[in-house]
Amino acid sequence: MEELLKSLEMPRDRHRPRKRVGPVPVGSGYRASDKINYLRAQHVPLNKAVLRQNRVLTGHEPAVFRESYQLLRTQILQRLEEHHWNTLAVTSPCASEGRTLTAINLAISMAREIDYTVVLVDANLRQPVLLEYLGVPKRRGLGDYLTEDILIEELLIQPYYLEDLVVVPGGQAVENSAELLNSSKMTRLVSDLKSSTDKCIIIFDVPPVLGTAETLAFSAQVDAALLVIEDGITNRKDIARAVDLLSSTNVVGTVLNKSGRVAP
Could you report the per-residue pLDDT of 124-159, keeping only the tens digit for each? Predict the structure, then answer.
C-alpha cells in the first residue's frame, strides 16, 4: 500500500477575523438547544475486509500508513487544544483528492488514542459517500435531519470496535445543500454537537472548496479547516484560491495526499 500522508504544513499565524454568514431559515424549525445523548447511537458492525479494501484504518494496516495518521492526529490536536477549538472541517480544493478518506482515518485515529468522543459528520449533502467507505448500507442522515422533523439521536451510528467514534451519515442527497448547511437548523446542530460533552471533537467531511458554494456557506460555523491536496494533481494556484476562500475560518494546515510534489 502506498504512503497516503506525506506532510502536514501549518500556515503561520493564519487566523483571520471570523466572518459570520447570516443563517437562512430552512425546514420546520428546531427544538430548543439540548445536549445530544451519544449513548443512543445505534451500534453497527463493520467488515474489516471492506475497510482494508477502502484503505480505512483497521489496526492491521502497514505501520507506515498508521503512523502517518498518528502524526497528523497529534499535530491537529495540538493546534485545536492550543486555541480551545473542537470543530474541524476537512476539505480540498477540488474533487477526488482524498478528502473523505482523510476525514475518516483522522477521526478513527483520534477515537482510538485520546480520551475524547469523536463525532464524524458527512456534510457532503450532494454526494454523501462516507458510509460507502465504511461498508455500511445507506440510511437516513444529515440531509434528512435538515429537511424533516426528526431528532439527531435517531440518526447516530457507532462502529462496534470504536467505542469513542460516533458517525452522523449524510443521508439522502439534496440539491439545496448550500442553503441547508447555512440554515438556522444546521447552526443550532453544530452548537449542540459542540456542547453535548466536555471532551468532544467534531470532524465534518465537507465538499471541495472550488466550484461549489457549500463549504463557503458552512466554513464560518467551524473553528478550523484542514485542506487535503493530491500530489501531482492539485496545482498551487488552486491551493491559494482555496485558502483565500476559506478566510471565514482558520486553515490549520494542508495534508499532502500520496507522495511526491505539488504540481506547479
Answer: 999 999 999 999 999 999 999 999 999 999 999 999
Q: Cα separation of 92 and 148, whole Å?
A: 29
Q: Where are the domains of the chain?
A: 5-12+40-257
What grid cell was written down for 89? 472541517
Contacts of 87 (CB under 8 A, 6+ apart): 190, 193, 194, 201, 202, 204, 221, 222, 223, 224
| pLDDT single digits (tens) 172-201 | 999 899 999 999 999 999 999 988 777 899
Asked if 218 and 206 count as a contact pair (C-beta separation under 8 A), the reply is yes
**Secondary-structure class of domain 5-12+40-257 per CATH:** alpha beta
172-184: b or e for each residue (b if 16 or more CB lie within 10 Å)? bebebbbbbbbbe
